[in-house]
């Protein structure tokens, strides 16, 4: 096929490493950066094809490995509305990445084009960006070769956060339509979210300084640009862990994942009671807050706390706005702390559902709700207003100034959030706006409910593909009988809950446990992890610290 005429020649420059299998998982391709050159080239080809399959809409490609080690890298595709790649195309990604020869690459392209009935005469349009990783430039060059091989109209956004790239894609594809999302530029991004923030906080008391741990990643320069754009006492920040130049610092002892996993402050931050802190991850799509209480103890405000804060605020606004049948719901994963789920159901009296791990699953569940708040406990999430919510807001006829104000605030909130994907910078502005409007400290926010003690462990096994789950990943259907063992262990502990699932991003099995006390929780976590190790081919050291 002539459309693929240049592919073999270009592909020969980016040979696939022998004996390596790539897989497009929850977060796209993710592995040691240096092994990904052929994959990036091929993702370029596929991004072009995907654009053609969408009649030339812009497709995004983000080169990042998020919170993972600096030597890792990865890549994921962004669909036209700024959402994650449609799931049915994930297997095409895996297929093309694993084609053994240059000719096979062309065969895979040809077969996808036929299956999807793609008009290859359409000019593909693709935009791409990368984070600060050292392997980024090399991988970007390979991607550019893939795009050139299919004559794509390709534009680089340089080094930006993952959610910024999602935002650009959505802006480009909605330009000049009734749902135009904004200017597809960095300046447009800061302007849109920054102005919505200022509209919400106007006239309120100014907050104290917010210390931001940027994980020594791309969030550091980007959040500073936001502050430079805003120049507002409402956004009084100091960025720490902002060294994106020195090798070996990205995500090390800092960042949202470190803070959430270790339940402690990052390097470079000593916590003063009364002060306010947050951490981004390496590509700035996750955020967690924290502070020291009056005894100096570390207190974490994770994705569950953010979800409950946001849901409470939205629920109250919707109630004041007095619009019929406009409902707020919350989507969580099984990793959500049990007390957050009880709080949403029993105190807020809002509907809540569990989705499988990975934001694309949460996103789809949230789309079914009028106003869907979704967050993973690790701090990755956002809010979606579905078309029915938007038309209810448009058609609302406020009867009082309070109703009109609440409706205006809902519009401003919608402008403040990145609807395409979880975004640390936009989520931070959202949290800040709510805290400013409520006049709350972090301790007042934290007071809504107390987390149950929880523990997340990793077990390395010979073959994690034998682990199969159901019930939003909370119940194992394979290996046989392992779930019965987990159930009998859980039954021993008051408020015990535990589940086992294979990781979608690492070669390991994750064990989560929570219970009424720290001791019970740890015993439960380690006994379940021990059972997994013994009965399902554990490798290396047995996890038995507490037994
Ligand atoms: P896996 O490795 O499948 O557990 C992790 C996170 C997810 C999600 C993805 C993508 C946990 C327990 N898991 O997935 O929530 O963020 O990475 O980055 O935090
Ligand atoms: Zn990330």
TrEMBL record:
Binding site residues for substrate: 376-378, 501-505, 510
Enzyme Commission (EC) number: 5.4.2.3
CDD domains, per database record: PGM3
Pfam families named in the record: AMG1_II, AMG1_III, PGM_PMM_I, PGM_PMM_IV
Binding site for Mg(2+): 66, 281, 283, 285
Alpha-D-phosphohexomutase alpha/beta/alpha domain sequence ranges: 101-175
Residues annotated as catalytic: 66 (phosphoserine intermediate)
GO annotation (BP), single: cell wall organization
Domain (Phosphoacetylglucosamine mutase AMG1) ranges: 202-288, 302-440
One of the record's GO molecular function terms: phosphoacetylglucosamine mutase activity
Protein name: Phosphoacetylglucosamine mutase
Organism name: Coemansia brasiliensis
Species lineage: Eukaryota, Fungi, Fungi incertae sedis, Zoopagomycota, Kickxellomycotina
